[in-house]
Amino acid sequence: MRKLILKVSMSVDGFMAGPNGEMDWFFKSRSEEGAAWLTDTLWQMGLHIMGSRTFYTMASHWPFSKDAVAEPMNAIPKVVFTSKDKLDLQAKGLNAQALKDANASPDAHTWAEAQIANGGLAEEIKKLKQQPGKDILAQGGASFVESLVATGLIDEYRLVIHPVVLGTGLPVFSKLPKPTDLQLVEHIPFKAGTVVHIYRALGN
Amino acid sequence: MRKIVLDLAVTLDGFIEGPNGEIDWCIMDGDIMDGESGFGAFLNSIDAIFYGRVSYDLWGQFQPDSNAAAAEQQLWQTVHSKKKYVFSHQPKDDGKATYIHGDIAAQVAAIKQQPGKNIWLYGGGKLITTFIAQGLIDVYRLAVHPVLLGEGKPLFSGFKNRVGLSLINSTSHKSGVVLLEYAAVK
After folding, report:
1. B159 touches chain A (CB under 8 A)
2. Rounded to whole angstroms, how far apart are CA atoms B168 and B164?
3. How many residue pairs bridge chain A and chain B with CB atoms within 8 Å of each other?
4. Is B156 on the interface with A (CB under 8 A)?
5. What is the ipTM of this complex?
6. What is the distance in angstroms between the Cα of B155 and the nearest Cα belonging to chain A?
7. What is residue A140's three-state secondary structure?
8. pLDDT 10s per residue in chain B (186 long)?
9. Mutate which of B27, B170, B182 to test chain A, going by most A C-beta atoms within 10 A?
């Protein structure tokens, strides 16, 4: 069965952003090594799930980005968790034409083809896990991540720990339903001072 | 100049104790003493320990059971060979520790100026928060345990400003514990 994998960059004290969504601390310790690791990680995934706000932000950015990371971000199919019946890229200024633009990635159509999940979060996740394919990735936004942690359905955590204590911010683990033992699968320090920890959740 | 080092076990979600003080998740065996970054090497690198009052009363003169393993006995002997300071508003004179109260920053600065090895900031939580808030910690050694508790006593809470860090070293153990060593960036 497919796994649900959460990949987040976080501070040493477990925040994925400052209290108002600040990410300056994240950009400060970014590195080529980290970007290469992220690109490799993304190519391992078969599906990218997210909330609608993150979807619209990403759909207006990734089709036109030349970063190496943009390739898998565009290529991997998306499922958007929303209470609505359909996505409205047009209303966000992203019509089909813009996505076919010469400057856009040849995979930009995946954003227009994103599927919707508008049932209960846990049920939809369980359904997606039953489908064949490579693993399911979630990266954000912050409230979507909190809700996912609350379901107890995350199988693997891929955490990029940045060298900073934020003191306050948007937490990753605050809605954890019960204590969870983890198995450390991999540990990768980067020269820029960030460290990757990969954990499998036990008892799932 | 001597450095103040915080050395603590912490869960992945940042707790140093469970909601009722539980530390049963803490891994004490295995290779924790070994290697350049091990606890044994750390104890050799310090010659003084800072305690809060409650921590000192609980652990400052703790003696393991006579049935305890040799390694554990040795560990406590080593700990008790260090010079002890207790930060408390109620100075006592047990003859075994130096009590400090009043202007913490100034007194800590004075101790750091004295010749000697590094200083272990043992805890408890309140003293640690005070030291973090006043920027008095030089090195953070965090033994990140492979467990999420969901609730408990957080290591980092009660202060407003960010703490910039610089990664010194990062080592993983068979137990799944990752030791992250950071220098505070001032």
Report:
1. yes
2. 13
3. 91
4. yes
5. 0.91
6. 8
7. coil
8. 999 999 999 999 999 999 998 889 998 766 777 788 888 899 999 999 999 999 999 999 999 988 888 888 888 999 999 999 999 988 787 889 999 988 999 999 999 999 999 999 998 888 999 999 999 999 999 999 999 999 999 999 887 789 999 999 999 998 999 999 999 998
9. B170
